[in-house]
Amino acid sequence: MPNTLVKEAMADKNQMMIELGARMVVASLSSKTATEARGDKSASTSVLAGCVANVSEAYTRALMWCCAYMGITDKKVAYQVNQEFVELTAYLQMITTLVGLWQNGGFAKADLRVYLRKQGLIAPERTDQ
Question: How confident is the model at residue 121 (pLDDT cuts 50, 70, 90)?
Answer without folding.
Answer: confident
